[in-house]
Every structure is written in C-alpha cells, then in structure tokens.
Task: structure prediction
Amino acid sequence: MPLLSAGPIDPATLIAEHDAPGHGGLVVFVGRVRDAHHGRAVRALEYSAYPAMAEAEAAAILAEASTRWPVQVSACHRVGRLEVGEVAVVVVTSGGHRDESYAANRWVIDALKARVPIWKREWFADGTSEWVDPTAAMAP
Amino acid sequence: MTRFRVATFARYAELLGGHDLDVELATPATVADLIAALRMLPGGAALPAAPLVAVNLNLADHSPPVAAGDEVALLPPLAGG
Result:
C-alpha cells in the first residue's frame, strides 16, 4: 500500500505484505477516529498532508526502524475526511519474535506522529471545527 | 529581488488565505528572512515567531540560505496519527 491513502485502509492489505516464513511475531497497530477530544464530542476528522514530504519522511522512518530492529515494517496514513470509527493509520511490524515487533511498532507510530507533516482538523458535534495544535496545550 | 513560492497547509493556509504564497526577498536570503517576509503578509502577524519550515522536504533551522528553485514550505505544528 502507499504510505498515504485517500481511501479506506484495510489492515489486512498491509498484513499480507508480511509473508516471510521466519517472521513468527507480527504486531498490528490500528489508529481510529475517536468520538471525543478534550471532552468535546467529535463527529469527524479531516487529515491534510504535505504529500511529498510526508511520503519521504514516513519512508525514512520505516527504513530507520528496520535498521534499529530486525523487522519488516509497513504503514499507511489516511488523508481526507474520516468519520468516527474509521481507520486513520495502520502500522504493521513483523520479525522473528514478538519483542522486536512490539518495540519497532511502538517506535514507528510515535515517530510518524512526531515527524510526518500531516495535520488534523476536528469537526465537532456542534458544527464548528478546529485544526489540532499539539503545542497549544503548552502555551500559557 | 527574487520571488519565492512557499507552500503552506492546514491552519496556516487559512490564516494566510491560500496554500501557495509568493514572497519577494533581496538575495542572498535566509530562512529567517523568508519567515519575516511571510509574517508581513495579510494574516501573517498571527504566525509564531519561529514556525517550522522545510526546505527541499527537510526541516530547516532558520540560518541557512534559501535559493531560487528551492522547495520551501511553512508547516503548522504536526498533528498526524
């Protein structure tokens, strides 16, 4: 699968890329749209990306993970408007055993969130919307 | 003067009224000069003093020069996942 997808992501498609017979431990992370943020009811999310940089940065993260751990990694992040419950991001890691697969998977999702130029607008139940600013919580 | 096309996204595109911004700078110019010019645009005063900037798809600090033909982007705080 491509690293960014404008259509629904099926985790099974990414899992199917992991067919190495020695990879006995496979970990799947699925991030889905939540129905609330800081106590406000959320109806939908809209993800917007800087596509060229997002793909380059995500590819660099996947490559870095497979140098840190003996794993195969695949990932896909959704862009566009998503309803509550839809899959926003999937990370699949597989290796010989579960330890490296869990460790790499956790590292990859954290790195994707921190480093890939993707932005999220929340549409609230009252019809208003707001771009999420993770730095705003730190402002005085 | 050299004209730079700067891509921007999400909340900053709304602040500045578009995804593609043109600024003119006396060259040689740095990322910091570019940010100063962007903050002079209509809506630009609401930008932080030190926003994230990418040059040729890599995050840049504010001291390197920018050259005509560089792909420059002004990035709001990242919020994927």
